[in-house]
Queue: 2 jobs
Job 1
Amino acid sequence: MNFKMSIASNLQKVKSQLPKNVTLVAVSKTKPVADILEAYNAGQRIFGENKIQEMVDKQAQLPSDIQWHMIGHLQRNKVKYMASFVSMIHGVDSGKTLLEINKQANKHNRIIDCLLQVKIAEEETKFGLSEDEVCHILNDPKIQSMENCRIVGLMGMATFTDDTLQIEREFEHLYQFYSSLQPKHPYFKTLSMGMSGDYKIAINLGSTMVRLGSLIFGAR
Ligand SMILES: *Cc1c(COP(=O)(O)O)cnc(C)c1O
């Protein structure tokens, strides 16, 4: 079996393990267009990238019915390059960035779905908002009046560790916070948590969207 065959079979295997209510984002960062096409031909339509320029280049070469998700840390001045096509932005960590997304989406007469990234990991290196900051953003009238940027949920990354209990604690915490916001925010429908190493834990703790890279495309 060659490498490309294995992308399709990896995908099939992963999908067979996901509950129906959990959406799969195939994280294709650093991988060539041919690999993405292989996954596409196996039925996958949602792909995640963490660099805007890389996503823009790939989008131009691939079928137009792909839904592109930006999962990386955002540079506000680059939002304009993806505003015409990006389907969901996971890593939003400021009100200013939301307002820029709203402005750029408006130019294309589109609505872009966004997730607020919450810092749940104990690692210093992982970025994201505190719960207070999330509430502050959600209560800001300028944010509430946005017409082209819709906040549809939260995203979080657990600490990179073998300590399953710690990962569970961090995901459980994010799930509780998400659940507490949901009644007041009718658009909240997405909790993006879980990567190749921890997605099973995330699903057990209420994830509705997993972002899987190496499990599908192999090691980077
Ligand atoms: C790279 C990346 C992933 C996928 O990581 P894997 O361990 O390869 O599944 C998921 N989420 C984010 C934010 C990433 O940057």
Job 2
Amino acid sequence: MQVYADNAATTKISKVALDAMMPCFETIYGNPSSLHSAGQEAKEALEAARAKVAQCLGCEPREIYFTSGGSEADNQAIISAARYGARKGKKHIISTAFEHHAVLHTLEKLEKEGFEVTLLDVHQGHNITAQQVKDAIREDTCLVTTMYANNEIGSVLPISQIGAVCKEAGIPFHTDAVQAVGHIEIDVQAQNIDMLSLSGHKFHGPKGVGALYVRRGFPLVNIIDGGAQERGKRAGTENLPAICGMAAALEDACAHLEENTVKVTAMRDRLIEGLKQIPHSALNGDEVNRLPGNVNFCFEGIEGESLLLLLDMKGVCASSGSACTSGSLDPSHVLLAIGRVHDVAHGSLRLSLCEYNTEEEVDHILQVVPEVVSYLRGMSPVWRDLQNGKREYIL
Ligand SMILES: *Cc1c(COP(=O)(O)O)cnc(C)c1O
């Protein structure tokens, strides 16, 4: 059995998305900026896609800017708010310690330019509260940027409350909603969100395409200069096939949101219950406010990489927040941010499900994960030390 349980990394493209893309390769291949009929046909497809994305977020089509993905949208949103803030002498930004690197690395760059960044602590309940945001606000705060849902541990942040706090304080609020869009109902108006990043490949659309929602009137800054595409805010000929595929995938995801949530949540909860039975294990992430498809555990005494390799041999594609998989020696900054020590953070496993997964696949995972964990523990010197008391259990 082959089980794909790494949907937080990327998803399989849906038939709906693929069907929406094909005409853009075969017949609607004009440049949307061209004045002739082929160009105008492409322009119509582009604007229809924009309207679909806007519809799913509860905003106006002209508030949607297409980008190359979630990372670019995050960069553009944060840089724009920083430039706007700096013009008014405000150079303080609030974010969280468990953001995606697209946000954290952009913030680090701004720090080198003299911005001050407050990263909110996520130890308590593996999440943040709106009160933490409120307490961190200063006279010179120019942006609050918090993710909607965490990609590693699945915690869903109190976005509506944070939006309300920011609105009251008059501070722009951006959210990296890459893990949430298409999986959680979003209404940027009701939730007081000023900017929001999304990415096509996290909801069964194509890779390399995303969008940034920006509330009308907010001064967006270009990070790619050139032609006048996207109302002058993002140069480059539009990736029409990908944009149409993403819009169709999003429309489909929003239309089936409730039934998908019910199905995926049930599988997630069965996995969590089953894996909790493994001794010296701990669930990572918010137990209540959690993405429907996210399961993330730490298992004491083992290495995440070996776990992933053995699971792959048994047909399970999963992910880990451990060292080698990410190409660095440090374990995931997210697991460290919630207070997992290095040793334990190295032994983590993320299983991320979608509506294409089945109960039979969950059965298979529930059979092989405990087997592989105990096999690895059988060979682990760390586990031996824990067992004979030379080392103390943490979990
Ligand atoms: C995947 C992801 C991104 C990056 O999106 P890309 O489209 O791959 O650039 C950013 N933030 C979060 C939370 C993600 O999960």
